[in-house]
Amino acid sequence: MKLIQTERFFSSLMIPVFIGLFLLFSMISISVSQIFLGIALFGWIVFQIKEKRRAKLPLFFWFLIAYIVLSLVSSILSRNPGISFVNSRDLFLFLVVPIVYFGFSRVGSLKQTNRVLLASFFISALYSLFYFLFKAVPGERITGFMGHWMTQAGLLLLFCTMALSLFFFCRDKWRFAWGAGFLLALPLIVLTLTRNSWVGLFIAIVAVLIIYKPKTLFIFPVAMVLFFLVSPKPVKDRALSIFDLKNTTNQQRFEYWQAGIKIIKDYPLQGTGPDMVDMVFQNPKYGLSQVSRSNVHLHNNFLQIAAERGLFTLAAWIGFLVVLFVSLIRLLKQRDPAVFPYAAAALAALTGLVSAGLFEYNFGDSEVVVLFLYIISVPFALERIQKYGD
Predict the structure, then answer these.
(1) Domain count across the chain
(2) Residue 78, in any domain of the structure
(3) Total Cβ atoms within 10 A of residue 241
């Protein structure tokens, strides 16, 4: 009996520890973070089998399961199944939802694990600042530890949604550390010069302020104007280019969206297959210029998913977004002080990701997706612990 209790103790401890290690490297090294996530998954599966538990997953995850199944069907019917199945490896990352949902038995341990994300951010921030001050050339887009500024900006966007929400809605001393992290993340996301993340952050902040105190929305535009005025010229030019229809990258996005609509018409049900859109749109009939054909996606989540996986998969993804949104509103209305700050963070992350995803295929960026799925899983895990315990 004592041996069984010891096994249960180490099994239940193992998952939070490796989720914490996953978070520690989430903004530093995706390969290392995914190794720890895989270990956490293995531990969770073993624990579930030994305890003979029935999985009662959040409703939104069933739509993600539908997305996974339909994506695999699309891979079978792909123009190149081999490439599509290799791309489908990232679908395993969706399992972060049940790992987080079932992996914790105490509210305190989950909150402590969240703080590891704060540590990961500060490590990444210190490196980014050092690089910007001592190594970057003028106008260089800062990438942190990531291989691309889009990924860095996407991670910073999600971190900001968590940091701002916990600063406003938590009542412990850690809220000030989260607030400091948010203030430090703002110039870092600016230095990526990534406009879609700026838009996503703007919408996410609006969502948080509406939840916090709607009247504060009147202050927000003033703060935005002041921030713009003190920004360096490259940042101002980059921000103003959002509204310039003659801007080259804006015109390219229109090309991608028009091409995406044509591809969806040609492959409405099964799509071209995951990771096949960039091969299909090489065909001149889709109207992309030679420069635009060198890109790998359509710069829009909705168009990209529909074009490469079909309209049924897009419907499953939209269903996931809608059900998640409604579920988070339900959690917010309950006003549970342990859950509320994280539900607000998840709602901000959702609105930020979707808004940025109107101009970028950020749901195809594994580093961003796995952190997003972690953030949205936390409030539901806290709700489960509050209701049912371990």
Answers:
(1) 1
(2) yes
(3) 15
